[in-house]
Design goal:
Layout lengths: L4 E5 L4 H17 L2 E8 L15 H24 L3 E9 L2 H8 L5 E6 L4 H7 L2 H8 L4 E5 L6
Parallel strand pairs: 1-2, 1-4, 2-3, 4-5
Length: 148
């Protein structure tokens, strides 16, 4: 198998869950290492009384929660057979951090919300930005459709 290391970025959405399942399946089938990655893009909010949302104590709580959620996602991936699972939390611009982290990876498996039209124009697409920057192939997965 030409892939040795898979990167699965997550935002803990159902779309990312689908990508985690696909990444874990590939990891299991081909016995390749899988990394679950969450990129935190902090925003600063100035609140009354001079309190700033990104104070170190607040960020510590945010990162503790993110690491716990990543651990839970890792449990799912491990239960699905992912090999040599690694989890990481990075900080910065999401698409750029994913692409930078992927420099020593062979494949990125990520979810997409499948936005279209004005919504996509206004909100942008992390998956599309990663596709443009990625140093390796990117497999983009949508969440499974649910009949209404």
């Amino acid at each position: 198998m030409m892939f040795q290391r898979i990167l699965v970025p997550t935002d803990f959405s159902e779309h990312a869950d689908r990508a985690t399942r696909i990444g874990a399946d590939l990891s299991r089938r081909y016995e390749i290492q899988m990394t679950l990655l969450y990129v935190h893009e902090p925003t600063t909010y100035e609140l009354p009384d001079g309190y700033v949302e990104n104070m170190p104590s607040h960020l510590d709580r945010v990162y503790d929660e993110l690491n716990e959620r990543l651990t839970q996602a890792g449990r799912l991936a491990t239960a699905l057979g992912a090999c040599r699972l690694e989890t990481r939390v990075l900080q910065g611009q999401i698409a750029q951090q994913i692409a930078n982290f992927a420099n020593d990876r062979d494949l990125i498996v990520m979810g997409t919300h499948g936005r279209q039209g004005l919504q996509k124009l206004l909100l942008g697409s992390i998956a599309q930005s990663v596709l443009q920057r990625a140093p390796c192939p990117v497999l983009v997965a949508r969440a499974e459709a649910v009949d209404a």
